[in-house]
């Protein structure tokens, strides 16, 4: 029967060994020894030599290395028991049976029932009932260890127990839904970050798993074979290949835990739906500067110089916290493991068996500890029998069906309580910090020297500048004196020259008067000759012009006679045309009245038939409705049958002519009839051949009536479903008319019809460039501001059709360069609506993203705009399997996407 050692609740007793001498680098830590109870006689191999006293650790001990007797203080492994409440299955299966264990927390005593009348009693350091909170578990089990780590010691917190008893819940729970559920890992990091100073201290983390005797990095899954290195002098275990991440805040630590848990192996067994298949090891390295040490040295050595002070290296303490979530022990018959799961179970049981053997050997003071039988025991050699402060929580369940596993877990804890560690403070001089400080001082001295050198050079430059200024001033004065002298002589010379020139000019004027008179007479004779020649040429030109006018007059008289006869003919034709016009206007007026009457009576008939009201159909449609009534019953669409009958009786040309009627109501009814006819594929070719498409486009551009815009756009959308009609629409400026209508429309239904027409045109491979050049894509994007789901669905369909055609053209090699959708700015809207609540919008957008991603030249833009995350989501969460498959194939075939996923450390 095991006996508990001391109170292990709400922190550690830090001053229990005040009389123990403390050195500069090796300082002992209180380990909650309880003087009221006898000390355990089984000592660890690292601290016990014989059964009656301390002894040095042998090379085969789990602690490893050689530790001096005065280098630490004994600290027994502390063991707490946590009882899991019954789960739903146990509540049903064991309803008639009592729990196999009974906890007495006030006595720290546990009773294990053998049968209805006999029990075994065990004592532990702490008992945690099924009602114990996560905070209580942390304060009892882990908080003293965390405080020791912050003081510079190594510490270990480990969970052991049968699978499904709550080990991972106790240690690794993140508490995202309820912060009260946070486990030991999260709470320990909160206390560490709250106690350290991020300016001088560092906290770094590694997260590993031991799976099938292979040590793997949970933060880098590609690093799946990490080697274990042991220091032959100190026995410390290190993992040089493991990822070490510095932690600055709690949120980044939680992200690392989520990443690690996502890579951890788990399986579904009969005992646990989410059974861990690997041992998880979290290592937290804490490096802290020891403040106040330099002040103490300076007080002892008051005569020391500042340089000597600066040469003293700072003192740092290094603590390491190891949190171990062991995989659960299980019996193959109960867990139902088979295949690869069976091999995992064998590996787990072998490593736990090796750990149990090492603890047995340490508890019994055996001369040989089989520490090298498993990588798990090599990793934990400092935790059992080494220099770390160790706290073990064993988890058990209440079910009597698993009494054997519960008894085995309890015995493991009892043996672990007999293991004693020799705790050692990890202090060392930080020579790197000293080097950095000296570098800073050296930089300061260099800067000071450079500053003084620059001041000296500036002074030399100032003196040189002053001397040069004085020399320049003397040279300038000399130059000014020379210039004044030169100007004086030059002025005298110029005055002499001026006097000579005046004399010469006077002589020249006398000679020039005589020559001028001769030149004037010669010029007058030449001018008269020029005027005479010009007059002669003008006379000849006038005579030619008179002859031309005479010939033109004769021709005009002949033309006048023929024009008079032609005018008579035109008058006769005009009278005939006026008569025909009056006749046609009468027919058109009669047809308009008939069409209005027929439309009104057809609407009235449809409403009566839809309401199921019996009775005679009013007006002139009696005979027409009686003929088509059997068709109404068969088709269920009275309006289409009436319009088809009207089509047969009146004729398509007359209906299309009413599209240009002056009466707005007539045009509205006429365009409705044409739209209903265009809904039937058999009528579309007839409408186009009769000029209906041209009339609809002209009506769309000329009319300002919203109803005409909506119905005409709907008719064009129906006609645009045919590839031949699509080319005709584009050739007749249909995109420009539709874009203008979309820009001016406010009615969502009108926008839906326009968007539907453009969306049909987007599905034609031949019209891609022309459609984009005439503003079709920008017109679609401009309609999204309406926000109506029906409009957005048509816009999304158009973008999906366009992207599909582009993808097909890129695959065939007929298109290169970025997508025209991306160039027109459609990508941000596509990414924003990729997860739209409306299914039609979301489905088309998902298809558009997949088609855009198939062309590698678009990858850079899609990554920068956030489309990569949407592609990953589509490949995993899309409700349609074909779209999921397309997204997955696109991601895996794109080098740019794969490189970005690797950069973000996302395993895909």
Helical content (DSSP H or I, runs of 4+): 55-70%
CA radius of gyration:
51 Å
> In terms of per-residue confidence, which ranges show pLDDT below 50 for 5 or more consecutive residues?
1-71, 292-305, 613-643
Query: Structural class given helices, strands, pairing?
Result: alpha+beta
The average pLDDT score comes to 78
Question: What is the oligomer described by this structure?
Answer: single chain
Give the overall form. flat
**Number of helical segments with 4 or more residues:** 32
For the sheet with most strands, the description reads: 10 strands, mixed
User: What is the count of β-strands?
Assistant: 21
Write structural notes for this entry.
This protein has 908 residues and is α+β, with helices and mostly antiparallel strands. Helices cover 57% and strands 11% of the residues. It is built from 32 helices and 21 strands. Strands 4, 8, 9, 10, 11, 14, 17, 18, 19 and 21 form a 10-stranded mixed β-sheet that branches. It has a 3-stranded antiparallel β-sheet with strand order 5-6-7, with helices on one face. Strands 1-2 form a two-stranded antiparallel ribbon. A hairpin with a 6-residue loop joins β12 and β13. α21 (734-744) packs parallel to α24 (776-782). The radius of gyration is 51 Å and the shape is flat.
